[in-house]
Amino acid sequence: MDIFMRLGYFIRLMDIFMRLGYFIRLMDIFMRLGYFIRLMDIFMRLGYFIRLMDIFTLRLGYFIRLMDIFTLRLGYFIRLMDIFTLRLGYFIRLMDIFTLRLAEFNYNSYRSLASLRFDSDLLHTLKRNVCDTLFVCLSDVFTSGSG
User: Fold this and answer.
1) Domain residues for 70?
2) Residue 103, SS3?
3) How many domains does the chain have?
4) Percent helix, strand, coil in the chain (nearest 5)?
5) Quick one: pLDDT at residue 142?
6) Would residue 89 count as lying in a domain?
7) How many whole angstroms separate alpha carbon 130 and alpha carbon 126?
8) Where does 16-113 show beta strands of DSSP type E?
9) What average pLDDT values come out for the chain (147 residues) when binned by 10 residues?
10) Do residues 37 and 133 touch, judged by C-beta distance below 8 A?
């Protein structure tokens, strides 16, 4: 909630997901992907402050069905680059973020193309000690947004 408030937004994530017609438990999504990911670590290492408001609001012109995006029942790594359009100014290769082989972000409005390579140790670092951190973060988000 602090991150969103700093951006000047008062966002209740639960409301966003409810508008999408889903009650999403992010912990279940990440566990189904087979990865325990500390998203803050990923974004901080990339040196970006991603404005989630830009990604998840109706300014995109999309009602994003997160369950369809993140389920891997077909065994595919979905590439967000294929889902979102150039109007966002983002090229995010989700497969590369989760495998941590290569992460490419192109924030067209403000930054030029940046390519960052990660070593395999980062994957192990992200897998360690994430349950408590992710649980606390998600608990804080959902409890803050429920009242």
Assistant:
1) 2-78+121-146
2) strand
3) 1
4) 55, 5, 40
5) 55
6) no
7) 7
8) 102-105
9) 48 51 47 46 44 41 40 38 38 39 34 38 49 54 51
10) no
